[in-house]
Amino acid sequence: MRNMHAVVYNGKSLILVEKPCRKIRPDEVLLKIAVCGVCGTDIKIIAGQSHAAPPVVLGHEFCGSVVEKGKDVTDLNIGDFVAVDPNIACGHCQYCRRGQVNLCENLKALGVDIDGGFAEYCVAPAGQCFHMPLKTDPLQATLLEPLSCALYGFQKAAIKAAESVLIFGGGMIGILMLKLARLSSARQVIVVEPDANRRKLCLKMGADLVYDSGDRNVKAILDATQGGAEVVIECAGAPLAVEQALRMIKNGGRLVIFGVSPAGQKIPIVPYEIYRRDINIIGSFLNPFTFKNAVDLLVTGRIKLNGLDIKAFGLTDIQVAFENQKRQKSLKTVIDLR
Ligand SMILES: [Zn+2]
Ligand SMILES: [Zn+2]
Questions:
Q1: For residue 86, how far is its CA from the centre of ligand 1 (angstroms)?
Q2: How confident is the model at residue 216, as a pLDDT?
Q3: Which of 117, 141, 216, 281 qualifies as a FRET site for 16, CA 20 to 30 Å off?
Q4: Other CB atoms closer than 10 Å to residue 290's CB: what's the count?
Q5: What is the CATH number of domain 150-283?
Q6: What is the pLDDT of residues 78-114, one digit of tens each?
Q7: Is the pTM of this model over 0.85?
Q8: Ligand 2 mean position, distance from CA 95 (Å)
């Protein structure tokens, strides 16, 4: 039996332990983890604000190579480099049967309900693994999970030619949305972000215009978009941003609520305005059937995820890494196990 170092969430905090790798089932593979991203959700789990099933190894944004495979696994080989879609749907509940796997009533996620990627090894169903060329940069492959989620929200925004896209939040997710919007035929892409360094990075990543989130900029944005953006994508996870977004959206526009606002926080909405202005308010949760597309965008070079401010830590520095992500000291924090 193989032993490994892993970071276990015990319901209160993170502890580095040594534990045996679980035996794989016929349809599973054992992965040697290369890189695993620290997500905002991980921070929320530790703070008791997001669900997890302790004791569990956290980490749901990871890639690695196949070191063992079950006897029923036919499309993966030892040595293959893969990224993992952590969200495992049951396949038989009412939502799964309708193809809405992100709404699965029995959804289990690697790194949330089942042991995930903050470890030297992880067991994953082969069906959750996406094969990529060996030359793929693991630091970029780690961003495929968030990219697949962004892609789902982006597809729901259904951007048409010459539309104006306004993105709230210039963090990692905002930048992924920005990159997707740059691939579309939008006439302009604008980012609203309070942090000056991040605004600078957004310009470098292709934003046409960037603004601070202050109310004083509402008029400037309305002017720049000829009275509001057709599409607004909220990636800040701030109820106030949703409120602002409704003031900056054109009549007939679509607002995608992608950012994770604190549960229970409310904002005032005037139903008459939504009716009279013909506004579509759209939710977006997880990544149903978008992981393959995200992989294709990365491996074909259509989306390049280099040049981002990614800070890497070792597994033993997990506490520092979580602190780094929590304080948003870099755009993205990862655990590099190579
Ligand atoms: Zn995540
Ligand atoms: Zn289901």
A1: 9
A2: 85
A3: 141
A4: 22
A5: 3.40.50.720
A6: 999 999 999 999 999 999 999 999 999 999 999 999 9
A7: yes
A8: 6
